[in-house]
Structure formats: C-alpha cells, structure tokens
Amino acid sequence: MRMNMLQPKCTHSCQWSSCQCGLCCTKITNFGVSRGGTQILKDVNLHIHCGDLTAIIGPNGAGKSTLLKAILGEIPHTGELQFLDANNEGTSKLSMGYVPQKLDLDSSSPTSVLDLFAAAHTRLPIWFSYPKKTRERVRETLARTKAEHLIDKRLGALSGGELQRVLLALALDPIPHLLLLDEPVSGIDQRGLELFYQTVSILRKNYDLSIILVSHDLNLVAEYADRIAFINNKTLECSGTPQEVFSNEKVIQTFGLDWSKRYLRDEKDRVDNAIMV
Length: 277
Ligand SMILES: Nc1ncnc2c1ncn2[C@@H]1O[C@H](COP(=O)(O)OP(=O)(O)OP(=O)(O)O)[C@@H](O)[C@H]1O
Ligand SMILES: [Mg+2]
Known about the structure:
Elements: E1 25-35, E2 38-49, E3 53-57, H1 64-72, E4 78-84, E5 96-99, H2 113-121, H3 132-143, H4 160-171, E6 178-182, H5 190-207, E7 210-214, H6 218-224, E8 227-232, E9 235-240, H7 242-246, H8 249-255, H9 267-273
Parallel strand pairs: 3-7, 3-8, 5-6, 6-7
Antiparallel strand pairs: 1-2, 1-4, 8-9
The structure holds adenosine-5'-triphosphate and magnesium ion.
Magnesium ion binds at residues 64-65, 101, 182.
C-alpha cells in the first residue's frame, strides 16, 4: 500500500496494523461478463490498490460501466473478484459506494437533499420532520463534498454539478472501502470538472479510499489518477501509471493523440494545488 502524503483518517472499523482501511487490494482475475448471450468483457486482470485513484478509460461501449456493475455484484461475472486485506487474505467485510453514470430524476418531485439522505438512513416516512441530529449528520456528510448549503434544495432543482456533489456525498455515507464512480461528471463545465477531480483526489487521501473512476476526460485522468486501466476490444488492453498508459501504442491509436506529453505535474504539485475538503 502507498503511504499517504497527507495524514490519513481511517474511518473504517477494521484494525489492520499496516493498513489504514482494511482493504488493501481489489484483485480481478480472468474476469468476464456476458449479457443477453453476448460476451461484453473477457480475460480482464486488474489489481486496484488501497489509497489509489484508478481511472478506467476506453471508447463508448467498451464495457466500462459493465465492469463496475459486475464489481458491485449487480450483474454476474466469470473469473475471480477478490477483496484482500493487509495479510493478503480475502475479506468479506467490504462496503462500496457508487455514483452511477445516469440518474433519471423527476424534476417536479418535492424530495429534498435532506429527504434523500434521511431515507437512506432512517425508516421514517419523509413527511415526518427529522430530528436535529439527523439534519446535523447530513450537513456534516454533505460538507465532505462542499455541498452542505444544498441540504434543503429539491433534488430536481440542483444543477448538474450540484447533483454530482450530493451523489458523491451520499456514496461516502458511510465512508466505503471502495468507491465506484461511473462518469459522474457528464454535463459539467470545466471548472466543475476540475473541482470534482480535486475533491475526489483529496477524499481518497484523507480517507485512504480505493477509488475506481470511469472517465472520458483524458487530461484530468492524466493529472489526477494514480493508475489507469484501458478497456478496449472487450478486455483490459493495458494498465499502469498515467505515463505508461498514455505512452502505450494501442491507447495512442485509439484516442488519436500522444497524451504522454501532457501530464508532467508530479504528486506534490497535485496535492499543493488541490482544494482541501
Ligand atoms: N443489458 C445488456 N444486454 C446486452 N448488452 C448490453 C447490456 N448492457 C450493456 N450492453 C452492451 O455492452 C457493451 C458495453 O456497455 P457499457 O455500458 O459497459 O459500455 P461503456 O464502456 O460504459 O460505454 P460508455 O462510455 O458509452 O458509457 C455495449 O455494447 C452495450 O450495448
Ligand atoms: Mg458507461
């Protein structure tokens, strides 16, 4: 596991001596997924490390969302999916947070951000007023993604960037071992995109999170990801550091550019430039 440059605050309940969060590695071996009789993914081999932001890139229809759904257990897969602790032993005490690629919201619904969080954590119907402590807890959770001011807004009235911050906060409540983000930033302007990547980058340091982020934004991926996995032709064609992946012939061919010259900022710069959350 990497050592964090910032002080990590492990919020998971497990107590491994050398691991901050109890999940050291998500190991995907000979992984395959078929849907409707068609093979979508095959022979995928990938290790995702604790404290790393791993970006999944690849063309439309390559199978990126499918991979995330299979990791979540939403769809069946072949091959092995293991969650390993610091002793390299399998752990089943694993929690995952997820922000989906698409969310169909009824813009006229009266449901507020507070209602959404309260529904996820209490059994009270939403027409009950919430105890003060519920409100306080939701506000604290929203503050992780700088969204606390949105607590009383209707979900349908949120902008794309605001909604994405709220959903990210929801995925972090409680802090998961593994956070899966499926292009959660589509339709957001450049400044919003950068803020999102900075936020995610700092969250993974502060909470020692494993993050898998599907993205089409190669510049931001190059800047913020620790590792990149390139999915193409139904499989994982290459993985490694941004430098390694963006120097790969297949990646260059697929995206038509030599991205390898575009991400020379080192880790220190990234941390110095990031916004604290
Ligand atoms: N339920 C399904 N039944 C059959 N085929 C499916 C199903 N869901 C997805 N697919 C197919 O699997 C392939 C991969 O889809 P997936 O959504 O994983 O791609 P993606 O890499 O996330 O693409 P994008 O970048 O556009 O989001 C596509 O060809 C898609 O049509
Ligand atoms: Mg997708």
